[in-house]
Design goal:
disordered C terminus
């Protein structure tokens, strides 16, 4: 099995958005079932607009397993700082190490990044486990009504409406790469 990253092609943009929404909806439905009320719009946990802004403002990659798309990642890199905007895998391949292998590939592609950051809602236990226990991130902040956090008013407003119980901010300082811990995957650079 080979896990690689491939730059998102314009011809795949629509399917990438749909796959991303499916993965995020699956996570929320797994946590809350039919009573989920964390939708941005049109019964989507993550809106088309949010995904498109992320794609347009960052670098988007398809996660490929044996040449087939199984997820995606969107990052922003400015010098030695990297932001993981979105990382998702198809629910059909969860718990097979593919997301972790993809994250290791991101680290491999951007060795100049010394600090990575990301956020996830408080209820996404699967994501929290993934970032902390698998990828080596640390929870460094908890945004909530008592600590609104980001200096981005749009994000604060969205968080208040969509995730009123809060979001965690994660950080990973790059002391060591996770690559040495993935012997069963072939991580090919682009």
């Amino acid at each position: 099995m080979s896990v690689t990253l491939s730059p998102l092609q314009q011809s795949d943009r629509e399917q990438f958005i749909l796959d991303n929404q499916e993965a995020f909806n699956y996570g929320a439905m797994e946590e809350f079932g039919m009573r989920d009320n964390h939708f941005e719009e049109d019964e989507q946990i993550i809106s088309r607009e949010t995904i498109e802004k992320s794609i347009d403002g960052g670098e988007a990659y398809r996660i490929m397993e044996d040449g087939k798309p199984v997820g995606g990642v969107i990052i922003k890199v400015e010098g030695k700082k990297g932001d993981l905007d979105i990382l998702f895998t198809s629910p059909k391949i969860h718990s097979k190490g593919i997301g972790y292998a993809a994250w290791c590939e991101v680290e491999n592609l951007y060795p100049e990044v010394k600090v990575w950051e990301t956020v996830t809602p408080y209820f996404e236990q699967r994501n929290i486990h993934f970032y902390v226990n698998r990828c080596g991130f640390h929870i460094v902040e908890f945004y909530n009504s008592h600590h609104p956090g980001p200096h981005d008013p749009d994000m604060t407003e969205q968080m208040d409406e969509q995730f009123p119980d809060g979001m965690f901010r994660f950080e990973k300082k790059m002391n060591e790469s996770c690559l040495g811990d993935v012997p069963k995957y072939s991580l090919n650079a682009l």
